[in-house]
Amino acid sequence: HVGHFTVNANITLSRQSFGITHYKQYPPNISKIYSYFECRRKKGSQFNEVVFFGLQYLLKKYLTGPVVTEEKIQEAKLFYQMHFKQVVFDEEGWRKVLEKHDGRLPIRIKAVAEGRIIPRGNVLFTVENTDPNFYWLTNYIETMLVQMWYPITVATISREFKKILAKHLKATTGSLEGLDLKLHDFGYRGVSSQESAALGGAAHLVNFCSTDTVAGLLMAQRYYGCPMAGFSIPAAEHRCILF
């Protein structure tokens, strides 16, 4: 049987395996866990600043609204029982999320504005539980949130390219006209997945508006409210000419 597979469609399954049992490992009487995300300051790092981008997409796609259902709880219960060969899944805890909060995560996330340039070693966003009974949720979503490294890295490197282009464009033409078009994104065919193309493609568009990566344009349109963030032109390739 071949079914429909959507990665991370079930929030209860969006965690590295070892973290499933952490709810049993916390000390007693905990009511609040407050975590933060940063790009660490490291001696010898190539860049001293990072461009923060991509969180809004992750929040809207995976963490907003009633993301916990009875069906998802049962799916996770069966999955982890087979995976660990023992009962380790916090079925009761997730059912309380469903019953008390209608399947919405009692989590607060605060972040710097996307697109901001932030020195390394500074907090980019924080995560905390808003209901003392669900302190274990704060770091449950860590696995998903640390995937922010990818759009942040693409946006940061893209900005560094732009600085180099600006320097030489100014030196050779005396003007920065057309700078936003000087680095074109053809990365769609070279990434690992549709979502990688969307995240990386949109991150490139923080700095430039020249792209052939449609997935990035669609992400900017659907999750950032930008009607059209990038542009291209009709063009040929070898196949067209040879035939």
Residues in helices, as a percent range: 25-40%
Number of strands: 5
Which structural category do the helix and sheet elements fall into?
mainly alpha
The fraction of residues assigned to DSSP E strands is 5-15%
- The quaternary organization reads as single chain
Continuous helix count: 9
**Uncertain stretches:** none
Average pLDDT works out at 93
Shape: elongated
Distance between the termini: 41 Å
As a whole number of angstroms, the C-alpha radius of gyration is: 22 Å
Q: How many strands, what sense, and barrel or not for the largest sheet?
A: 3 strands, antiparallel
- Topology as H/E string? EEHHHEEEHHHHHH
**Main sheet: strand order:** 1-5-3
Organism: Anabas testudineus (Climbing perch)
EC number: 2.4.2.12
Protein name: Nicotinamide phosphoribosyltransferase
InterPro entries: Aldolase_TIM, DUF5598, N/Namide_PRibTrfase, Nicotinamide_PRibTrfase, Nicotinate_pribotase-like_C
Give a structural overview.
The chain has helices spanning 55-63, 70-84, 91-101, 137-140, 142-145, 149-173, 194-204, 214-224, 238-242; strands at residues 34-38, 49-51, 107-111, 117-119, 123-129. The protein has 243 residues and is mainly alpha-helical. It has a 3-stranded antiparallel β-sheet with strand order 1-5-3. Helix 2 (70-84) packs antiparallel against helix 3 (91-101) and helix 7 (194-204) crosses helix 8 (214-224). The chain is elongated. The model has no long low-confidence stretch (mean pLDDT 93). Residues 182-240 form the Nicotinate/nicotinamide phosphoribosyltransferase domain. One of its GO terms (biological process) is NAD+ biosynthetic process. It catalyses: beta-nicotinamide D-ribonucleotide + diphosphate = 5-phospho-alpha-D-ribose 1-diphosphate + nicotinamide + H(+).
